[in-house]
Structure formats: structure tokens, C-alpha cells
Design a protein that fits this description.
With 323 residues, this protein is of the alpha+beta class. It contains 10 helices and 7 strands.
Length: 323
């Protein structure tokens, strides 16, 4: 049977008239009426607040004001369209309803799901040094291996746990910390050795993500948790602000040290190495501003998805006699 959605709200005389007209058309144009109160959903209020009643029948939509004749024509056309597209029955229908419920559930809990994924992604690298300290080298090495394609894991640009220092930057960074070369006895320009070094009981053990990556994804996690408190009220960050305050500081900090490592650098180019503090600050800022830029748009999109799923599920119970 053809489904007809009637969007209404309280104290709406035109809604009462549309309901009455649909009842009169029931004999000649059989349909399953699903009434939806737009006042229960902010998205529906924004979409239909000034145009109720709204009738949806198949691919056709009528917005107030419309006449009995308009309604009859729309339902007749929808019935003809439905005849060319048989409704889902049995298992196919149950699968479709189940998929709609799954999509609706994800759209309601997307932020919690995403925050959990980011937490696991940024948390597992800290488990690697914990496992190394506990003597469980096999599982720890597995974590280092899994993260190696997405991070350089250079020891002099990574955090260490359970050692004399939290970090061992190169001497070029000019920090107050014991430099990497002095602490390890390794050549500070040997990138392969720096990547392979996991640590020891004296140095501590390396986190499986570098300092900047930890800061970026940590910022995304912190931003996601804060967003949970202000969702629906926070406006997206302008793209220019994201570029100036999020991308540019990290690009300058990381880009200048990257260029300095190339042979044949122009004379006068400052040879520099970033510090753990700068990597953390620029990475954290980039992660936080990514959330501010993207999550409001995600929330808007998920709200529309929730509404679409709710509208479909409003008529998901099969009518009597249908499996």
C-alpha cells in the first residue's frame, strides 16, 4: 500500500483540513497515512516550519496551501509511480528497516564512536612502552610495526616513558634536555638508527607515535570531548582562520626543519630543529582547529541523517496482514 507522510504541528487548521481530505481520498486512493509532528525535531521545524501541512507521497511533495484537487492529483501520480516499483516484502523489508535503524543509530552516536576511535588510535602507542617495560616485547613490537607506516617514529622526535627524560631532542634543538646523541651514543644524523631505536631501561621506551602526531590526535580527542558539551551551538571555524592559526604554525615549524635537512640548502638558510614543546603546541592547535572546522558540519549532516531515518522508521511497522 502506498505510504503518505503528513507533516503537521499543533493548532494547525490547515493540517486538520489536509487530514480530512486524505481520509476522504482513502477509498479511491488507498494509502497508509504516517503523521509526523515537526515540533519534535529541530531539522523538520527548520525545513517545514513555515509551510505545514506538508504531504509527501512517493516522489511528490505538496506544501501548504494546496487544494483537494492538488492532493488528489499528487496521490494519483504517486500511486502510478508505486505500481512501477513493487514495495519490499519479507526479509528484504526487514533488512532495509534494519539498515535504516543502524544508520539512525550511528547518526545519533557518531561523536561517541569517533571519540572512541581517536582515543584508541592515540592511546595504543602509549601501550607500547608500557609493554616494553613489563617485558612483553612481542606485543610491543607489534604496535610499533602497525604504526610505522603512518609515522616516522624517529627517537629524537618522540616521547619516552619510564626513563631519565621524557624526550631526547637533537643537540640542534638547543633545549635544556640531554641531547639524543649524547644520551644514546648514536649519530644524530642516522635516521635509520633513530627510527629503529625503541629504548632501554635507562632511556625509557619510545611512544609509537611521534610528538607532533600525539599532539595532533590528542588535540582531536580533546576537541571532540569539548564539542560534546557545545554541539549544536558551535559555528564552524572559518577556513581562513583554520589556515592561519591551525595549518600555518605547524607548516612553518615542521617545514623549516624539513627543508634544513636537504643537501644543498641555500646559503644563509637557518639550520634548525624544532623542540618537543613547539611540536606539541603546533600539533595540538592543528588538531583542535580541525575539530572546530569539521565537527559542526558533521553534526549538521548527522542531524539531517537522523531526521531522515526517523521519518522512514515512523512507518516501519508493517500494516496488518503484511509480513
Amino acid at each position: 500500500m502506498m505510504r503518505v507522510n503528513l507533516y503537521t504541528k499543533k493548532d494547525c487548521e490547515l493540517c486538520d483540513q489536509a487530514r480530512s481530505d486524505l481520509a476522504e481520498l482513502q477509498a479511491s486512493l488507498p494509502h497508509r497515512l504516517v503523521e509526523i509532528d515537526i515540533e519534535t525535531d529541530p531539522v523538520l521545524m527548520a525545513r517545514h516550519g513555515e509551510s505545514v501541512p506538508v504531504v509527501e507521497a512517493g516522489p511528490y511533495t505538496l506544501r501548504a496551501p494546496f487544494s483537494f484537487t492538488d492532493l488528489k492529483v499528487a496521490l494519483t501520480s504517486a500511486q502510478q509511480h508505486a505500481a512501477d516499483k513493487p514495495p519490499l516484502e519479507g526479509d528484504a523489508r526487514r533488512r532495509a528497516v534494519g539498515m535504516t535503524r543502524a544508520v539512525g543509530g550511528f547518526s545519533r552516536h557518531w561523536l561517541a564512536i569517533l571519540n572512541t576511535i581517536v582515543f584508541l588510535y592515540v592511546g595504543l602507542p602509549f601501550l607500547a612502552p608500557v609493554l616494553m617495560k613489563a617485558g612483553m616485547e612481542g606485543p610491543a613490537r607489534l604496535i610499533y610495526t602497525v604504526y610505522s607506516p603512518v609515522c616516522h617514529q624517529l627517537a629524537f622526535r618522540s616521547w619516552f616513558l619510564f626513563g631519565e627524560q621524557a624526550a631526547y631532542p637533537r643537540a640542534l634543538a638547543r633545549t635544556s634536555l640531554i641531547p639524543y646523541g649524547q644520551a644514546t651514543g648514536l649519530d644524530e644524523n642516522d635516521l635509520a638508527a633513530a627510527r629503529a631505536l625503541v629504548g632501554n631501561q635507562q632511556l625509557g621506551f619510545k611512544v609509537a607515535l611521534c610528538e607532533r602526531d600525539v599532539a595532533i590526535y590528542g588535540g582531536i580527542l580533546i576537541g571532540g570531548l569539548v564539542f560534546a558539551l557545545v554541539r549544536g551551538r558551535l559555528k564552524p571555524l572559518p577556513i581562513w582562520a583554520w589556515l592561519v592559526f591551525g595549518v600555518m604554525p605547524m607548516a612553518i615549524d615542521g617545514g623549516t626543519q624539513f627543508i634544513a635537512g636537504f643537501p644543498g640548502v641555500p646559503a644563509g638558510w637557518p639550520i634548525r630543529e624544532s623542540t618537543p614543546l613547539l611540536r606539541t603546541v603546533t600539533g595540538l592547535l592543528f588538531g583542535l582547529l580541525n575539530v572546530w572546522l569539521a565537527y559542526p558540519y558533521l553534526e549538521e549532516s548527522m542531524a539531517q541523517t537522523r531526521t531522515a531515518a526517523s521519518v522512514k522508521l515512523a512507518g516501519s511497522d508493517p500494516p496488518p496482514g503484511r509480513p
